[in-house]
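Let's practice the habit of predicting before peeking. Look at the sequence and jot down your guess about where helices and strands might fall. Then scroll down.
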Amino acid sequence: MSRVAVVGAGPAGIAAAVCAAEGGQQVSLIDDNQNEGGQIWRGETAGEWFDRLRGVRVARLQRARVISARDDALRVELPDRALTLRYDKLILATGARERFLPYPGWTLPRAFGAGGMQAFVKSGLDVRGARVVVGGTGPLLLAVAALLRKRGAKVEAIIEQAPLVRVTGFVLALPASKLAQAISLKASLLGVPHLHDRWISEFTGSSVRLDDGRTIDCDYAAVGYGLVPNAEFVELIGPHNNVWQAGECTGIGGVEKSLLEGAQAGHLAAGNQEGAAALQPKIEAARAFAARLEKSFALRPELNSLATPETIVCRCENVAAGALEGMRSWREAKLYTRCGMGPCQGRVCGPAVEFLRGWKPDSVRPPLLPARVESMIGGRE
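Done guessing? Here is the structure:
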């Protein structure tokens, strides 16, 4: 029996933990949320997978954050203590986060990311009667708009930056099951204007302005430009034997891809090569879908000019876009402006700056997240 540590309890992590435990391994499932499910299954149940998780022996570490790793051990911080968790095999299912592109007004109250708005509504934010504009890019916009409408909000418009021809081609190439879901979502949004080839260039607090000069009155702006993998842990660990990656941290492709990759990683950790191999054709199909998704909703170059010199890029350290002029790298920007040095450690501004400037972090160092000093220097095994 091997000790298998699974980092992340979204769909990929749950599938990995279940398949490893069903294969007879000693499994620990670590996640920084109160409940399993990740962002996609927040506040919801997922039928079969939650039933299977309840049916196996898995040590669950909730509200737990992995802050560093070395050799065969993870340093884990919990609300009241820290511990060192040793493992023989490691599965990274760290998911993804929303990509924000700074635009005038994006730091005002009632300006959300599209995924952030979804999470807040699922967690209880009352939007009954509120006027909301949903913008950015990707299929998530329809899901968010449908949820908002279901919860009583008035969705004033959906603003999609991708051209209609690309989106239509993507939809028509969907397999039957996904096409049915798309049609159902679209039907639930009858009467809501859905603009393509357009983007939100400003939020005033009471309206949004589009790139063509039109304004739409609203109480909330929910704007997100897709997802980016949470790859910091992957980069910190580096390539090792007995370490697998699964889900959105390997590339954005949705729940089906995450479940398949998670299940395969769990089988491999349990030594079930046959079970892992049987999933490979479906995984290849899911990854092909992910590639089409990325191509269809690729960010257009005009979005590079969204931020004005006064627009805040790094919210943690209050760094405006103009302060980055003349900088040649992410490291230089950190040294001179503290961009990326705040509590989020560049998780929000990093992907934005990469798109705007082409800069990438040159290293990943522990702690991966802000941590208590005592969490770094000792603790129980």
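How did you do? The chain has three domains: 3-97+228-293, 100-225, 300-381.
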